[in-house]
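Same chain as my last thread, 139 residues:
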Amino acid sequence: MKKIIDAKLKEKDYRLTDQRRTILDVMLKNPGKHLSAEEVFEKARKKSPGIGIATVYRTLEKFTEIGVLYKSVFESGKFRYEIYNSEIHHHHHIICLNCGKITEVQDDLLNDLERRIEMQGFKIIDHELKFYGYCPNCK
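reply #2:
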């Protein structure tokens, strides 16, 4: 994964400063977690106390733009970020309405629907599906 990320950064001629590297390290050390900018900021400050929240926001957005991170909107319009994996086309989540836990669904449930849409002339690039309910601990 790190080689893929380095290649994307090099392709986009994006210089990885110490603070940007810290943010990337936070994301790499939290695979499968959907971190908010504030959570990334808190974790990054432990390694780089001088880092600013604006730097975190800008870096997360830039990483999303160049395909290093995947950005999703969950509760009350808050963005959450995770490492983008180009080998996983689908992106489905189950969100617990009580504790807020976010779990990824590994099966691609929309393959047939995508094929039908593409038969109408569209080219599907990606999709995201969210289920809302209660996790086993909260039900």
